[in-house]
Amino acid sequence: MSSKSTIQLPRPTAILWDLDGTLIDQTAAIIRCYREVILDMGYAQPNDDVIRRSLGGVMAETMGLFVESEHMDVSCKAFRKRFPEIMFDGLILLAGGIELIERVYKARIPQVIFTNKHGDTARKVSRYAGFAKYIPICIGSADTEWRKPQLALTQHVLDQIEVSAEGSIIIGDSPTDIAVAQNAGLTCYCVATGAHSLDELMEAGADAAFESLIELGQAIKLLEL
């Protein structure tokens, strides 16, 4: 079903939130950082749209589209060094996010941020954006040996908030988030606020897709006690 349908979503037992493209748009700084690093390594100017559509996976996957394997380690280290210096430049908090998070918090439904962004960076963003006030646990890459959409990581995340997959949902913006749900037996609601359209998200297997978190929030009628 898409956001064009008049639907009411059931109350979830827990929510696993994606970060980039779902709660925030940090694309400008991310693309700028990839571009700077790739050019500094002596490679050709990368295509911004190729970078944008690759986001949702881990850094090495995007970097590997432009940088040869022997330069991967140096490139990724350069990215991690540079990104904190520009990470808040152009940062956008996507509409409806903090409001929905607060509603879920007041409904006493466990929440966790679950991202392939580097864990330390993700937690800085969460604090900066005000999400950490309501969602104390934020798990990113380098926090474990796994990455999305691996089942072991999803199970680890569920364990951190002491819930099971049954009744839990993931809210994201990419096929990676859909794969997380499919691997772990979660329900996946997507928003077309990242690099993928409603049609693409539904074709990838989302249980429902919406134009924004505002629309998704309107569809979830059973959150508050």
Could you please describe the fold and organization of this structure?
The chain is of the alpha/beta class and 225 residues long. The chain folds into two domains: 14-25 and 92-219, HAD superfamily/HAD-like (Rossmann fold); 27-86, DNA polymerase, domain 1 (Orthogonal Bundle). The chain is 43% helix and 15% strand. It has helices spanning 27-40, 48-54, 59-63, 72-86, 97-106, 119-129, 151-160, 175-184, 198-204, 213-219, and strands spanning 14-17, 24-25, 92-93, 111-118, 138-141, 168-172, 187-191, 208-210. The radius of gyration is 17 Å and the shape is globular.
Instruction: Determine the strand fraction and express it as a percent band.
Output: 5-15%
When the domains are counted, the total is 2
CATH architecture of the largest domain: 3-Layer(aba) Sandwich
- Tell me the strand order in the biggest sheet: 5-4-1-6-7-8
The tally of helices reads 10
Contiguous runs where pLDDT drops below 50 for at least 5 residues? none
* β-strand number: 8
- Biggest sheet record: 6 strands, parallel
Quaternary form: single chain
CATH domain topology of the largest domain: Rossmann fold
